[in-house]
Design a protein that fits this description.
The complex is a heterodimer of chains A (323) and B (321). Chain A has 323 residues and is an alpha/beta fold. Chain A has helices at residues 6-20, 44-48, 60-72, 91-97, 101-104, 134-138, 151-163, 210-225, 244-253, 268-280, 302-308, 312-322; strands at residues 2-5, 24-28, 53-55, 76-81, 114-119, 144-146, 168-173, 180-183, 196-199, 204-208, 230-234, 237-239, 256-259, 289-291. Helices cover 37% and strands 19% of the residues of chain A. In chain A, α2 (44-48) links the parallel β2 and β3 (53-55). In chain A, α8 (210-225) packs across α12 (312-322). Chain B is an alpha/beta fold and 321 residues long. In chain B, the strands form 2 sheets. Chain B has a 6-stranded parallel beta sheet with strand order 2-1-3-4-8-7, sandwiched between helices. In chain B, strands 5-6 form a two-stranded antiparallel sheet. The longest helix of chain B is centred in the N-terminal third of the chain and has 26 residues, at 3-28. Chain B is globular. The N and C termini of chain B lie far apart (44 Å). Classes of the chains: A alpha/beta (323), B alpha/beta (321).
């Protein structure tokens, strides 16, 4: 297995799928000549040409709406919304068009569309550019929402998303492109809607995904030094949400903490905690805790911003509270 | 055009009218739920447009879609069954009045968010351009849709990428109850295309199916020759309210009465008889056949089963690849 960055893993997945299937193409802002805002599609324009790597106007409704149309016409578009904060201006397409078409027309239409985007805070971009609104999108049946936390999962999940006949929102983290990890050789996919135990443990279950996974893994390491064995479950997909490994782990540890970067109200943590109480209430030995972002629009000032974002220390503290 | 083709167009226009008149009754009887936007008065527009297309040309429209559905080959039975929410409806009772499509007939719906289908139309045209298909995407929308952001993003993209799209604004002069001059900065809506460098024109007589057909055929030829998008505004008039139960306070009775004198079915009837293309007896025969077909369609819809309760989760996600 080779160790590569998240950026490389995502780029490799796109490159390999485009080589494999002529119907796969990329459209979005600065994906072509520029090489991608986060350099994920660097070199694509020269290799695949402007027909398959299409720079668009700064017009998110045209990007996602156009992607839906191209998908209906038989292509497998990978659209890119530069950051998830701009997805709000294409909201109608992401939540109200793409996920509805298969159902609403009685199964006649399929929308094999990927919407890649990057979310997350911590880069001093201010309140409008730093959000983690994943839960909003995961609210809608008909859409699949994926958010990987490791390079191996990023590559396998993106390939699965491109091959899926449904619209998939693929959420990356803007501050994680340099994160390194081992990636299997050759062609492989990771199934959408399957959670994974990323670290085994026996005392407490830490549930997370994406950047929260990194925090959780680091926290688990610190806790181990203090004699607490944390099992870390990575959701990987927010819809469909696979609670199986989470519940199994909770039945073993009887304690849980859910870690996410978004705001806690109506969030991913709220969903996971509810389902744990609904399905495994009797196994709880302590109230389940959530670690999430403070309920403020993220400030620009670095220290203020960091104080609002969940940190490794917050995860460690929450685990100790439930022990 | 051959006589039989004329008779077919006449049949479609009368069928749309009868189906919608019956739909209005069924709505009053409480058998149709939700909204019901009637196309009565505008039949010449969609009939003329669809008659000018080749099978490879995609058609996509807004929520006032029953007429287009019939023109594109969806049967009266499937339309009425959908309105009644039945399993035999064209969208299996999942879509209702505003969401009828027939992929088999290259008819892509039936879209209920004003203007949202315009970028989708550009995307479909991109698909055809990418795959080297010869089809043009015909995208119909109302005057009201030209004031929303989607319109501008979709139309701009079509020119930037020189996509084979025929934009057709059906100007029935009201967006719900708001007259064009109260909602749009320019009254001549086709002038908006000027801002995107797209050739455009207005057809003043959208009540005449032959004129619509000729104009659309010309525009389709232009696009198929590789010239990129074209923008056509067609003037027409909605005889009924926006939806059922519209008190129509925004227009006076006199205006409606004046327009009703230009009934597209009456105009076509006179044309066919005056030009000796068909006799009055030919047309009477068609009307009688449509009456029977509509009655049978109503009976079919009413006697069709509702979707089975255990199909609730069908079609949420597409299976397989």
């Amino acid at each position: 297995m080779a160790e590569i960055t998240m950026r490389q893993a995502i780029s490799d997945a796109l490159w390999e799928e485009m080589e494999k299937d002529e119907r796969v193409f990329i459209m979005g802002q600065e994906v072509g000549v520029w090489g991608g805002t986060y350099a994920v599609t660097k070199g694509f324009y020269d290799h695949f040409g402007e027909k398959r790597v299409r720079d668009t106007p700064i017009a998110e409704s045209a990007i996602v709406g156009g992607g839906i149309g191209a998908a209906l016409a038989g292509l497998r578009p990978v659209t890119e919304i530069m950051t998830i904060n701009f997805a709000f201006v294409a909201m109608d397409y992401i939540v109200n068009e793409a996920p509805k078409m298969h159902t609403m027309f009685g199964g006649q239409m399929r929308v094999p569309l990927v919407i890649r985007t990057a979310g997350g805070g911590g880069r001093q971009l201010g309140a409008t550019h730093s959000q983690t609104p994943d839960a909003i999108f995961a609210h809608f049946p008909g859409l699949k929402v994926v958010s990987p936390g490791t390079p191996a999962d990023a590559k396998g999940l993106l390939k699965a998303a491109i091959r899926d006949d449904n619209p998939v929102l693929f959420i990356e983290h803007a501050a994680m492109y340099q994160v390194r990890g081992e990636v299997p050789e050759g062609d492989y996919t990771v199934p959408i809607g399957v959670s994974k135990v990323q670290r085994e443990g026996s005392d407490v279950t830490v549930v997370s995904y994406c950047r929260g996974l990194q925090l959780s893994m680091q926290a688990a390491q610190q806790l181990e030094a203090e004699g607490i064995s944390a099992e870390v479950v990575d959701l990987r997909s927010l819809r469909p949400l696979d609670m199986g490994p989470v519940i199994e782990s909770f039945k073993k540890t009887n304690r849980a903490v859910v870690v996410e970067e978004g705001w806690p109200s109506y969030g991913v943590g709220s969903e996971v905690v509810t389902r744990l109480y609904e399905e495994a209430f009797d196994y709880a030995d302590a109230p389940i805790k959530r670690v999430a972002q403070k309920e403020v629009p993220l400030p620009y000032n670095q220290a203020l911003e960091q104080s609002a974002l969940p940190q490794v220390a917050d995860v460690v503290a929450a685990v100790k509270e439930v022990m | 055009m051959k006589k039989k083709d004329h008779l077919e167009l006449y049949r479609q226009m009368v069928l749309i009218r009868r189906v919608e008149e019956r739909a209005a009754e069924l709505y009053q009887e409480g058998k149709i739920g939700g909204f019901l936007h009637l196309y009565i008065g505008q039949e010449a527009v969609s009939t003329g447009i669809v008659s000018a297309r080749i099978p490879e040309d995609r058609v996509i429209t807004a929520y006032r879609d029953h007429g287009v559905a019939i023109n594109c080959g969806i049967s009266a039975k499937q339309v009425l069954a959908e309105l009644l929410g039945k399993e035999t409806g064209i969208s299996k009772g999942r879509g209702g009045s505003m969401h009828m499509a027939s992929v088999e007939n290259n008819y892509w719906g039936g879209h209920a968010i004003v203007g949202a289908h315009l970028p989708i139309a550009s995307g479909m045209a991109l698909g055809d351009q990418y795959l080297g298909n010869k089809g043009v995407t015909i995208c119909m929308f109302g005057d009201g849709a030209t004031n929303i952001g989607f319109f501008h993003e979709g139309v701009n993209l079509s020119k930037v990428w020189n996509l084979p799209v025929l934009w057709i604004c059906e100007n029935n002069q009201y967006g719900m109850g708001t007259a064009v001059d109260r909602a749009s900065a320019v009254e001549e809506i086709h002038m908006k295309a000027e801002g995107y460098g797209i050739p455009h024109s207005r057809l003043d007589d959208g009540m005449d199916v032959m004129k619509v057909r000729a104009k659309v055929a010309e525009a389709l030829d232009f696009i198929r020759a590789g010239n990129g998008p074209y923008f056509l505004e067609i003037m027409t008039y909605r005889f009924e309210g926006h939806s059922m139960g519209d008190p129509q306070r925004y227009r006076d009775k006199e205006e409606v009465t004046q327009w009703e004198k230009t009934d597209p079915i009456g105009i076509y009837h006179r044309y066919l008889v005056d030009e000796k293309i068909a006799s009055k007896a030919d047309l009477d025969k068609i009307e009688a056949a449509v009456e029977t077909e509509t009655q049978e369609a109503v009976e079919f819809a009413e006697s069709s089963p509702d979707p089975a309760m255990d199909t609730l989760f069908d079609f949420v996600y597409a299976e397989g690849n």
